[in-house]
Write a structure and sequence with these properties.
heterodimer; A: mainly beta; Lipocalin; 5-stranded mixed sheet; 4-stranded antiparallel sheet; 38 strands; about 5% helix; about 40% strand; B: alpha/beta; D-Maltodextrin-Binding Protein, domain 2; 3 domains; 10-stranded mixed sheet; two-stranded antiparallel ribbon
């Protein structure tokens, strides 16, 4: 009897271990899975696999948030753009600074005391290869490890308890113009990561690495190559340098085993090289770029794609995060993804079937009059499509986007998405001489102007079902921070002038605000330690992108000095 | 010691140059890895570094290169010259549109793109590339030109080295690459196997200069005087670093649809520029912007040589008027140029032409 039972147990354990060992494992990473079950945690960048940045914690709520006090503050040690969302797992907070990252910290979540600190050795000559700021959007947790990316193209895994390096994988060569700025997506036994670099003639890809060993399990190009579906949507050999980089964060639906990533705009800027260069692009849509990809994580295959801007000519990256939710569409509870795209349209799609449900402008838009959900095609205004020798003026939105990387959130109780929106327009043509690695060329000349309506930024509460605004708070500048929402009926956001706000999630009434000294662009998070709820936010304004925002950019730079502080509040 | 010796010694002290403090080094920024133009390797310093040494010597100052990778272009210039890390940046485009915050030296040299072909081939321009495979660099003007010509197969590369390699591997029949890099690779690694001919077309070449912060105009003036004194030395450096010496060739030739030679006296189409009134010229300018700018660029400013109407005189000489009238009244259907007969009157065409004459070569 005893022998039989031991054999049975041994067989079961073996089966489980074999299941974990292959890329086709049915279970999530057990450590992460367990962390996700605990509402006290904020276990990944967007809270959980849905990226909805919604917490069920309500100890801090609309009634008492006005009393929020500083619990502790922590200096990150750098003053370049602070874009990280800290994660908190079982009482430990993990956060990365900018510039490398220069530092990765593990802190006691209740007190801020350092448990360990890791300083990666990042190549000193990286800055010229990074387009838009020496940023890091944070770290990921899984399998007893903390994982993060570096600007010089590496994915690093540390022991979560000690901070010692376990492995480091070179994902991409930064000298090709690629950098990695976002945390990886943890799925089963894998860390999935993309990279930036569309400006330099790269072709985008997503790669999966084994959590235990750092070995690459698969690599999938975002831009289809010869023989792959969609390759004929690229003219000539332009697919080789097509861009379509997946540089932001991914989402995951365990029910259908699907990973969702957005991809950046196609390269080069001159659409005539890769398409027709006109609004009649026909078949030449440049598939894989400015799109949402649905990917099978077991093998990296692309299941389907929905493009937000075909044959893009405006620098409308499609990388914005896919927020997963379940909402009533035509009376049926429907599994959707939502994307507040750079191009100004709010996309709602059935994430099981890959069918686009609706796409409506959430900010003033004029490059297209509408988006036809049945055909997946925008109805363009040809006068707003720039090309060589043609200056298109007053194009809305500008490259800044209706929303940029700063994350939005979704509250299932209010049914609203909370979007850090921008209202800017641009003029664009290619005539300005530019200079790159000793070579001159005619660069893409653009200038950013304020959008129409007297406001350049907005905290927008948007109903994804009706595709209408519920409420909105105008801000004088674009490029404000990400948002977070809770069951305590709260929405929280920091603005680019350094003020951290809390609002009633239903009505938008402001309930709390505090000036934190440097412009805020990161998204806030919330967690509980020892039974007490906290709210955390990084402040530290950027210097890169504002340089390309004209007068608004100058105002962003002069509003506050650079900074690097983690503020943690509680009652 | 006699009195004369004391005097002589005193005189010597008075006449020798003051050496109580060393002259401040002339610090010029340059890319550390951009041969033949510049390199941090002392064995092959590069054109800019050697030129910088000569300029500094002419100013009686030591020379100090400050290495600045030019991957980030304008941003690098902002973070170096405009932040005081160096006195000037060698090799910026000599164009007021580049960075308004700089003052520029006189031109050092002309840089641009070159057609690279096997020696002895008859390839002279776009027309000869039909049906051929041509290597071009990603996001450069030659790539933009080839994008308009589907009869030419584009082989896209990221660097001049990749382009030269594509030629050597037989993956391309010709290449249009950054000229100084192509010439250098051809000379140092490929035994001068290739013909490197700089392009004459607008938008394919620019002048390079040294850029200084706006408040350094006095230094810029001194550097200009130094450059002026160096003439022959600059030419010698161009030879040393294998700069292409072939005569510039125009990539874009006149279209085969141009009318055959017509009698020179044609009263209806001749319109001496100085006979047009200022009012006609202004009207022509407005007509142009109202009707033609969406293809030919506002004020006829365009980066696309095939549509560059500021080069009509360069391209057609004294046939310019004739070609203009023929083209606007017949169109060029395969190139997307409409026939404007019946849409604009002859008088309107004449006014547009009057204005075009005022902007030729500008």
């Amino acid at each position: 009897m005893a022998t039989n039972r031991a054999t049975l147990l041994g067989g079961t354990v073996l089966a489980i271990m074999m299941a974990i060992g292959s890329a086709g494992a049915a279970m999530a990473d057990p450590a992460l899975d367990s962390a996700l079950q605990n509402p006290d945690n904020w276990s990944m960048y967007g809270h959980d696999y849905t990226n909805d940045r919604y917490s069920t914690l309500k100890q801090i709520n609309a009634d008492n948030v006005g009393n929020l006090k500083l619990a502790w503050a922590f200096q990150l040690g750098t003053t370049e753009a602070q874009e990280a969302s800290p994660i908190v797992v079982d009482g430990t907070l993990y956060v990365s600074s900018s510039s490398g990252p220069t530092h990765v910290f593990a802190l006691d979540a209740a007190t801020g005391q350092i448990k360990w600190q890791y300083d990666p050795k990042v190549a000193a000559d990286v800055p010229p290869y990074v387009c838009c700021g020496l940023d890091s959007r944070g770290v990921s947790f899984a399998d007893g490890k903390i994982l993060f990316s570096t600007l010089d193209g590496h994915l690093v895994a540390l022991d979560a308890k000690t901070g010692k390096e376990v492995w480091s994988a070179k994902v991409v060569d930064y000298k090709d113009g690629a950098a990695i700025t976002s945390p990886p997506l943890i799925v089963k036994n894998m860390a999935i990561i993309g990279y930036a670099g569309g400006e330099y003639g790269m072709r985008g890809a997503l790669q999966a690495y084994d959590l235990a060993t750092g070995k690459q399990l698969w690599k999938t190009w975002t831009i289809p190559g010869p023989g792959q579906h969609g390759n004929d949507t690229w003219k000539g050999d332009s697919w080789k340098h097509g861009g379509g980089n997946a540089w932001l964060v991914g989402s995951y639906d365990p029910k259908t085993n699907t990973v969702f990533y957005g991809t950046s705009n196609p390269g080069p800027w001159n659409a005539a090289v890769r398409s027709t260069g006109t609004s009649n692009y026909g078949k030449l849509t440049n598939a894989g770029s400015s799109a949402t990809l649905a990917i099978d994580p077991d093998n990296g295959h692309i299941k389907w794609e929905i493009q937000s801007t075909p044959a893009d000519a405006w620098d409308y990256d499609g990388v914005n995060e896919l927020v997963l939710g379940d909402v009533p569409i035509d009376g049926h509870d429907t599994p959707i993804y939502m994307k507040a795209d750079r191009d100004g349209f709010f996309f709602v799609a059935n994430r099981d079937t890959g069918k686009l449900i609706s796409a409506n402008p959430f900010v003033p838009v004029n490059w297209a009059k509408s988006f036809n959900a049945a055909t997946d095609r925008p109805v363009e205004d040809p006068a707003k499509r720039p090309r060589l020798g043609y200056k298109a003026t007053d194009i809305c939105p500008a490259w800044v986007g209706g929303k940029n990387w700063q994350p939005m959130s979704f509250n299932p109780e209010t049914g609203l998405a909370y979007i850090p929106a921008n209202n800017t327009c641009q003029t664009m043509e290619a005539t300005k001489i530019d200079y790159h690695k000793g070579m001159f060329y005619l660069g893409n000349d653009f200038s950013v102007q304020p959008g129409h309506g007297g406001y350049l930024g907005q905290l927008l509460a948007w109903n994804p079902v009706t595709q209408k605004a519920a409420w909105a708070i105008n801000r004088p500048l674009p490029w404000n921070g990400g948002t977070m929402t809770t069951a305590g009926n709260l929405v929280l956001q920091g603005d680019i002038q350094g003020v951290f706000h809390a609002y009633d999630a239903k009505t938008g009434k402001e309930l709390f605000h505090k000036f934190l000294g440097s412009g805020i662009i990161a998204g806030p998070v919330t967690f509980a330690a020892d039974g007490k709820q906290y709210i955390a936010i990084l402040s530290g304004r950027p210097s890169g992108p504002p340089a390309f925002m004209g007068e608004a950019g100058k105002q962003i730079l002069s509003a506050t000095p650079p900074g690097g502080t983690l503020f943690v509040f509680s009652e | 010691m006699g009195w004369p010796r004391l005097c002589a010694a005193a005189l010597l002290v008075l006449l020798s140059p003051l050496t109580s403090h060393a002259a401040a080094p002339l610090r010029l920024c340059a890319d550390p890895d951009n041969l033949p133009l510049s390199s941090s390797n002392p064995a092959t310093p590069g054109f800019y570094v050697e030129l910088g040494q000569k300029i500094a010597a002419a100013l009686h100052r030591p020379f100090e290169p400050v290495w600045a990778p030019t991957q980030a272009g304008e941003r690098e210039v902002r973070q170096t010259v405009l932040s005081g890390h160096c006195d000037g940046f060698i090799g910026v485009p000599r164009d007021p549109d580049f960075m308004a915050s700089l003052v520029l030296s006189k031109p050092l040299l002309t840089l641009g793109y070159a057609m690279v072909t096997p020696r002895g081939t008859a390839i002279r321009g776009l027309a000869d590339l039909s049906g051929k495979r041509v290597a071009v660099q990603f996001a450069t003007p030659p790539q933009d030109v080839l994008a308009e010509h589907d009869e030419i197969t584009m082989v896209t590369v990221n660097t001049p080295a990749e382009g030269m390699q594509a030629l050597a591997n037989g993956e391309a029949d010709a290449a249009i690459l950054w000229s100084t890099s192509a010439g250098w690779i051809d000379h140092t690694r490929m035994h001068d196997a290739w013909r490197v001919a700089p392009l004459a077309d607008s938008g394919m070449h620019w002048q390079a200069a040294i850029g200084f912060a706006k408040d350094h105009a006095v230094l810029r003036d001194a550097v200009d005087r130094a450059i002026g004194s160096l003439g022959g030395a600059i030419k010698a450096l161009e030879v040393k670093y294998g700069f292409p010496t072939a005569a510039p060739l125009p990539l874009v030739q006149a279209s085969s649809q141009d009318p055959p030679a017509a009698p020179p006296q044609d009263a209806t189409s001749q319109s001496p520029h100085n006979a047009a009134s200022a009012k006609d010229i202004a009207a022509g300018h407005q007509l142009f912007n109202d009707n033609c700018e969406h293809c030919h660029g506002p004020d006829a400013v365009t980066g696309l040589e095939a549509r560059n109407l500021r080069h009509l005189a360069l391209r057609y000489g004294d046939k310019m008027n004739q070609v203009f009238f023929y083209t606007v009244t017949h169109g060029r259907p395969t190139e997307g140029m409409p026939n404007w007969s019946g849409i604009l009157t002859h008088a309107q065409f004449q006014k547009i032409l009057d204005w075009l004459h005022t902007i030729q070569g500008k």
